[in-house]
Design goal:
Nuclear Transport Factor 2, Chain: A; alpha+beta; 6 strands; six-stranded mixed sheet; 21% helix
Length: 136
């Protein structure tokens, strides 16, 4: 068996995360994170969480977001890879639990420490979060 290089390991981790997101099984990938992972939403509205650190805290934040959806589909449009990170341009096509459609555009940056995600930075269009109370 030929050992995988870091880039292909990282690509596999991102694919696993995206598949779990699309299956609404966000707890399925928590073990892919370092204990001190940072989740950052730099352009989030003031009322939305901006930065969370720690595996449990990140899991709680992701739970609070994804529990609002009946269906979530994250589609990777472009992918860029370096030795220590993967950057994707993506779109979403979702249905919230209240039946409303939701879609957004993203730039997601996953940074790695070995075979674990140590930082997840997510840029999205904050104006698409049109119903503020949906995410409280």
């Amino acid at each position: 068996m030929v050992p995988q290089d870091d880039e292909s390991i990282h690509a596999g981790l991102v694919d696993e995360i995206v598949q779990a997101i699309n299956d609404l099984k966000h707890d399925a990938f928590i073990d892919l994170f370092t204990p001190d992972i940072v989740l950052d939403y730099p352009y989030a509205p003031d009322w939305f969480v901006h930065t969370v650190q720690g595996r449990n805290e990140v899991q709680n934040q992701l739970n609070s977001v994804f529990k609002r959806f009946r269906r979530f589909s994250l589609i990777i449009d472009k992918r860029y890879e370096t030795d220590t990170s993967i950057i994707v341009e993506a779109t979403s096509d979702c249905e919230r639990k209240d039946g409303e459609a939701y879609g957004n555009r993203y730039v997601l940056i996953w940074e790695f420490d070995g075979d674990k995600v140590c930082r997840w930075t997510e840029y999205f269009d904050p104006q698409k979060l049109r119903v503020r109370t949906t995410f409280h």
